[in-house]
Design a protein that fits this description.
- By secondary structure, this protein is an alpha+beta fold.
- It has a single domain, classed as GHMP Kinase, N-terminal domain (Ribosomal Protein S5, domain 2, 2-Layer Sandwich), CATH 3.30.230.
- 29% of the residues lie in helices and 28% in strands.
- The protein is built from five helices and nine strands; from the N terminus they run ββββααβαββαββα.
- The strands form two sheets. A five-stranded mixed sheet has the order 1-2-3-5-4.
- Helix 1 crosses helix 3 and helix 3 packs parallel to helix 5.
- The radius of gyration is 18 Å and the shape is globular.
Length: 249
């Protein structure tokens, strides 16, 4: 029997799943990390390219973009590879991850170069897009530090940090960081992307069946904010140990 106030996996409503960040997971990449959030595992790599998209050429600014994919057996049933290009869900997630990372990069200081952040899901148990953003930032920061250390940049061109987490309403309760068992039956499912200074980058919230109130929205944002603070601390600790100097906020 589940204890009163606790969830199916034993967590409190506002508790994150166990989180682990392993930097340098793929040494060949300029920046890489394996992020684990419970059963969700995503490898994030950052690749530096000495070019920018055509619409930015000659403007002196750089670009950060993202790609996302789920490995065929990252879920209980095999997922077909997207050989003809990303489908609608994949395209949406890629754009979300790219927007989130660009929100904290000084593109002028980056110069005319691109950084591609690849997010490959090894295990999917809910929250793969939010894990991709949180881990993607660490991979990005590691790649930027490598550029700085090589003398290609005067400083790491980050204006802050960014992380993301899911929140939702399950069985009438506001909960943080939903695994699949909760996500697939949630009355409300929300993804929140936020900088380390507490500024929102994106909020995606949807009700299934019964609409939710602005009071519930405030509670969802509150629990997500606390979760992102904890994730930001983990990002900073991981990058500090790797020798990356980040902005204070």
């Amino acid at each position: 029997m589940v204890e009163r106030g606790k969830r199916g996996d034993g967590r409190r409503p506002g508790e994150l799943r166990p989180v682990r960040l392993i930097p340098g997971f793929l040494p060949a990449a300029e920046g890489s990390v394996l992020i684990e959030m419970g059963g969700t595992r995503v490898v994030c790599t950052a690749t530096v390219q000495d070019s920018v998209p055509p619409f930015l050429r000659g403007g002196g600014k750089g670009w950060v973009t993202a790609e996302y994919a789920m490995l065929p057996r990252s879920s209980p049933e095999r997922i077909e590879r997207e050989r003809r290009g990303p489908g609608g869900r994949t395209h949406e997630i890629q754009r979300l991850v790219g927007r989130s990372l660009r929100a904290v990069v000084d593109m002028t200081a980056l110069g005319e170069r691109s950084i591609v952040v690849d997010c490959d899901v090894l295990g999917a148990d809910g929250g793969t897009r939010t894990a991709s953003i949180t881990g993607g930032f660490v991979a990005l920061a590691l790649a930027l530090e490598r550029l700085r250390a090589a003398g290609a940049l005067a400083a790491v061109p980050l204006t802050g940090t960014v992380a993301a987490v899911s929140a939702g309403i399950v069985d009438g309760r506001v909960v943080l960081d939903l695994p699949y068992a909760e996500d697939h039956r949630a009355e409300v499912d929300m993804n929140v992307v936020m900088t380390g200074s507490g500024r929102l980058v994106e909020v995606q919230g949807t009700a299934e069946g019964k609409p939710f109130t602005t009071r519930q929205l405030d509670r969802l944002l509150g629990v997500a904010t606390e979760g992102i603070k904890r994730l930001t601390d983990m990002q900073r600790e991981t990058l500090r140990a790797a020798g990356v100097a980040l902005p204070r906020r």
